[in-house]
Amino acid sequence: MAQSTLKLSKETGKNRVSYEEGIISGADIEKSDAWTEMIATLRRGDRIRVLKQPIVSLDTMKVAGYEALTRLGIKEFQMPDDYFRIALQANMLTLVDHQCFKACIAAAALVPAEVLWHLNIFPSTLANIPVKDLLAAFPLPLRSGSYCLEISEQQVLSDLSQLSKVVHALKKAGLRIAMDDVGFGRTSLESLILLKPDIIKIDKSWVQNVSSDSVKRETIQMVMKVVHAIGAEAVAEGIETEEDLVAIRELGITYGQGYLLGRPA
């Protein structure tokens, strides 16, 4: 099997971005007219749409927050997996992610002030954009506890200690921090220990069919021990059936997200 994503990231340079499929070079794709037009669209950032998906308290079944989700206004490339891959190939991932981040902050004006507004951001963006510039995108005064930054486990940075300094500064400014896709990556435990997130989002791959899969239940139980140890809260992603909802509640998870509880809109 190929070397691990973390090892690959370390061997190819500090703060290098790596995915399960490896490091992608912009030289690997033909620079056609369509490619040029797509890059120009991503650079302008004027076709980013923002949807929201509810995060529900499993005790009251009331909306406790929303996750902001971006889409691109180009039918063939509207999903994040599509346009972020192109951005990565064009060496402009940080630019595009920062544009999506700012668009999601602007969309927060459309949701009630009392709910937590979750914003996705790549670790590489946190490493490359100064904290002051990230905070400058928020309306002032910044309401403490109103925003949560979700840091994806699917992207690995070699220098987690440097990332932890950025996370600490953002928390000090009043932002909450969530570790997203926990259970997906190979460095989950290391990330949780160093970053000490306020919220841990359990990846949908471990949530779906948990009602009938003892291995998944045991895995989530182990994750919940870490959740309790660092004083965090947990969100189960990808809840799509009543059976899985019951199982998630039995596992002591406070919050849930998924098509059963509300689709992006």
Number of helices: 11
Radius of gyration: 18 Å
* Percent of residues in helices: 40-55%
Q: How would a crystallographer describe the biggest sheet? A: 8 strands, mixed, barrel
Structural class: alpha/beta
Please list the strands of the largest sheet in the order they lie side by side.
Answer: 1-2-3-4-5-6-7-8
Overall 3D shape:
globular
Average pLDDT level? 86
| SSE arrangement, N to C | HHEEHHEHHEHEHEHHEHE
User: Per DSSP, what share of the residues sits in E-state strands of 2 or more residues?
Assistant: 15-25%
The strand count comes to 8
What are the low-pLDDT stretches, counting only 5+ consecutive residues below 50?
1-30
Alpha carbon gap, first and last residue: 40 Å
Structural topology:
Blueprint (H helix, E strand, L loop, with lengths): L4 H7 L21 H12 L3 E10 L5 E10 L7 H10 L3 H15 L8 E6 L1 H6 L2 H6 L10 E6 L7 H13 L3 E7 L5 H8 L3 E4 L1 H4 L6 H16 L3 E4 L5 H9 L4 E2 L9
Helix pairs in contact: 3-4, 7-8
